[in-house]
Batch of 3 targets.
Target 1
Amino acid sequence: MAKVRDFVDRYLTGVSFPSIGILDIIEIGILTFLIYHLILWIRDTRAWNLCKGLVMLFGFFVLSYILQWNVILWLFTNTMGVGITALLVIFQPELRRALEQLGRQNIKVQLFATEESEDSNERYTTKTIQELVRACSELGKAKTGALIVIEMNTALGEFERTGIVVDAVVTSQLLINIFEHNTPLHDGAVLIRGNRISSATCYLPLSDNMQLNKALGTRHRAGIGVSEVTDSITLIVSEETGGISVAINGKLRQNIDVDLLREILIEGQNRTVEMKKIKLFRKGRKKA
């Protein structure tokens, strides 16, 4: 009991809690609203993965401070200014897009509502796998080029906005019709979220990997490019050969049959939230 009294006298005596008024509550509410929607905005962009890396760096900084690793602390302190400038450069596209949206749209105070649908994180079903496999098979036989991006954990909103909204159930007939020559939606990529085609004619970033086969066309380079910056599964049908390819994690596997395509999609369907690597894709993969 004496130790408790001594602790109270030493550390808690004189401790005072600030008074909270109406203006303070309003300020807390505004900050909560802004931080909440900032997190939602970051989560729908590629910046989400960068933010997770920054959290890890901050944790390492805290650990260095606790353990008094002076050299590491010195490095953190002296590179802070450069790091802030680098962050502005890295996040420049996202920041510009956010400011443009803020200027175009009316602000809607929806503290607990989001623009995401309830099934935005839903994995595609076995029926969707069957439709995708059938569509790729038929497109390959007809030598009709196709580029299909399946969203996993990383949101594809920034690419979705470059296309035309479709919002339809995934069916092989619809996919074949979209990529048919001389149709309005055939040029560009189709994005799939869950069991629905979210948009078509989307623009994707081209891969700048110098080790890629020079014979690969724009469609394959775009498929690899989006797989480098997201965790998506990208299906590519060659217009020249009719071959089916799959791009995952910046790697391309070409000329696969429909059975292996089905297995890869099933493995992707069973991915955990932690995003385990696809074992079937990793085994025996060939360099592009």
Target 2
Amino acid sequence: MFLDGLDDLDQKIVRLLIQNARMSYSEIGQQVGLSRVAVKNRVEILEQKGIIEEYTTIINPQKISGAVSCYFEIELASETLTQAIELLRQNDIITQIYRVTGQNKLHVHAVASSNEELEALIKDTIDRLPGVRSCTSSTILYRIKDIKGLRL
């Protein structure tokens, strides 16, 4: 599958870290048959290669009162794409920006603290992007399935 480029031990280590990124090197070592030091070395190599990018806490905005999660599909003129991406990147409400297939399209995810903050994002940022050809948005009502990172 996706981990075919890793040896069996690295695959086991990565799977364990995906299940619980807070698992200690000792605990991982017990499960894969390596010493704590050997696991630490393997994890550091995976990090250096960019296979493991980060460890993070994921907050569910729907569990926070008033938070609004929204997706935008934005089509831009090709000559303004880079400038628009930089403007979006600078906005703290915007959590993800993806370049997707289609004519200069971006898929943008935002999490606002309220409907008012979302409206301000649309009015002050999205509507003012240079070269917008079209923009649609969808508000997320609730998560049904949300896999973070690599699907195993």
Target 3
Amino acid sequence: MKILGIESSGLVASAAIVAGDILVSEFTVNNKQTHSQTLLPMIDQAVAMSGIGLEELDGIAVSAGPGSFTGLRIGSSTAKGMALALGKPVVPVPTLEGLAYRLAYADGIICPLMDARRNQVYTGIYRFGEDGALECIWGQTAADISEVIQRVNELGEKVHYLGDGTAVYSQVLQKETNIVFDIVPLHLNRQSAASIAALGAVYLQQGKGIDAKEHVPVYLRQSQAERERAKRLSENSAKTDGGKLG
């Protein structure tokens, strides 16, 4: 099975080709350039260097969210456009599952942390079964960092933290985690298109590929613009109600 993986949910931009049990090519950058600048050229390079033609792909796996609103839109629109043109399925891979899959066969539990700002993270809790399958303990969500640590502590197992939220909340993790834990080293700590492609291949075999037209990103929260608009509407409504005669 040949899969193109696309990852653009955070600061990392990444594209990879997986064929069977081989990672054929991967390009990853984390240099603060916009995904609109880097993603398509990286996909072109990943495909060209792999020696695998686009028509040979069985599907296109994409990090489906949560994450950066702009990044997710760029990744999803790229995956949809390519899949529609090629007549291939899109395989949406939840971002936190793709991140956790970087630690396949790790002992204990895995807790990805993506900085969602406002003292929140996008997170979930996972483990790997004896058969190597990824198991979800707590599905991906937006939560306060202290709530996440409390849930981890209650499980009482060794935990591996990873993701850009580990740098933002490192002091809180050190202070409040009261079980054995580690923070995953830099070469495994961020999103990866190889992980998205590898897990996407598993999900495609499980029948989780969809028509490109059906794919939409998973945001979990409203964007800042949407929150500001809702606030303005609420304030305007309050002013209108306050001005009515009783």
